[in-house]
Amino acid sequence: MSASVPVATIKKNSREEIDISLDFFNGNRVFNARVFYEAEDGTRRPGKAGLAFTVDKLEAFAEGVTSALMAAKSKGFLK
């Protein structure tokens, strides 16, 4: 199977980014969202924080995130 498929990078703060990708792990295609940070030596390294699950759960996850976005907007948390 092919290696990681990069999907998006989201800036979290001045030193961290969230990388979203589709990966292959233990024989399964997985969704992966992992925090990367800038180390003191300037290199980019993966942190412990992240989320990974098989892609069969991706649609339900996307629906949940969409619901959270709508709720955040309706409560005035976002413009």
Write structural notes for this entry.
GO terms for molecular function: DNA binding. By secondary structure, the chain is α+β, with helices and mostly antiparallel strands. The protein has one domain (about 5-75): Transcriptional Coactivator Pc4, Chain A (Transcriptional Co-activator pc4, Chain A, Roll), CATH 2.30.31.10. It is built from 1 helix and 4 strands, in the order ββββα. A 4-stranded antiparallel beta sheet has the order 1-2-3-4, with no helix packed on it. The protein is flat and about 40 Å long.
Topology, pairings included?
Elements: E1 5-11, E2 16-25, E3 28-38, E4 44-54, H1 58-74
Antiparallel strand pairs: 1-2, 2-3, 3-4
**What is the terminal separation in angstroms?**
42 Å
Q: What do the pLDDT scores average to? A: 94
Instruction: Look at the helices and sheets and give the structural class.
Output: alpha+beta
Give, in order, the helices and strands. EEEEH
Helix content: 10-25%
| CATH domain topology | Transcriptional Co-activator pc4, Chain A
The CATH H-level superfamily is Transcriptional Coactivator Pc4, Chain A
Number of helices: 1
The coarse overall form would be flat
- Strand order in space, largest sheet: 1-2-3-4
Strand percent estimate: over 45%
Radius of gyration: 15 Å
Taking pLDDT < 50 over at least 5 consecutive residues as the criterion, the unreliable ranges are: none
What is the CATH C level class, in words? Mainly Beta
Architecture (CATH level 2) name:
Roll
The largest β sheet comes out as: 4 strands, antiparallel
Count of discrete structural domains = 1
Count of beta strands? 4
